[in-house]
Amino acid sequence: MRTSTMETDVRVHPGGWSADVSGRSQGRTDVGVEVRTPADEWEWRQASALLHDFAEWVRGVAGVDLSAEQPSFARELDDLEAVYTADDADMFVAVERGLAVGIVAARYHRDRSAELKRMYVRRMARGKGIADRLASEVVNAAASRGCASVWLETLPGPMDPAIGVYHRCGFVQTRRRGTLDRAGIIVMERSVDGKAGQP
What is the dihedral of CA 58, 31, 129, 10, to 10 degrees? Predict the structure, then answer.
């Protein structure tokens, strides 16, 4: 089981684009939070609940129905563990006192890049730097798999706070072509060695 001790308050759309619904990180850290792959069936169920919550939030803020726009999202929810224990993907949860309070996923591509997606932090856990920890976990996992960069898709406007978080974490807007077919979507990327943009 992989664990990490790093930290923000971001949400990334299940397809990749991101939203920070918590405002700015307050710079606090919570040493009682552990970031790891879901350890058992209970944590996988909590991960699924987090993604359902996020889908509802995205529908309310951005008017996007994830299940309609991304049929793969609904299929993932049917068997999250099977999807994210496959060779080309990882999922991490932030666990505090036995409760999963944050989530992020990574998808590894043949071009030696990793896609950061599905990031979300529960309202009660925001302001503790948890999303920074989740993003760092994806970057570390990508590096361990020999990836050169990590990228994500995000939607300016309702998700501007998240874009600020990603800038702080070393991501910059790039010309990489994303996977989402929606007006206004941008792609942000950083190299795994800490340099902004593509390697």
Answer: -20
Closest by CA position to 116, among listed 38, 77, 169, 67: 169
Estimate to the nearest angstrom the gap between the alpha carbon of 79 and the chain centroid. 18
Measured CA distances, 112 to 51, 120, 151 (Å): 26, 25, 11
- Between residues 70 and 117, which one has the greater pLDDT? 117
pLDDT band at 137 (very low <50, low <70, confident <90, very high): very high
**Residues whose CB is less than 8 angstroms from the CB of residue 4 and which lie 6 or more positions away in sequence, other chains included:** 35, 36, 92, 133, 136, 137, 140
**CA-wise closest residue to 150 among 87, 70, 79, 90:** 90
pLDDT, tens only, 148-176: 999 999 888 877 777 877 888 899 998 88
**When comparing pLDDT for 61 and 173, which is higher?**
173
Provide the percentage of residues in the chain whose pLDDT is more than 90: 43
> Which pair of tokens denotes residue 93?
């949860």
Rounded mean pLDDT, 73-82: 90
* Tokens found for residue 23: 């405002």
Q: Can you list the domains of the chain with their CATH numbers?
A: 3-147 (3.40.630.30)
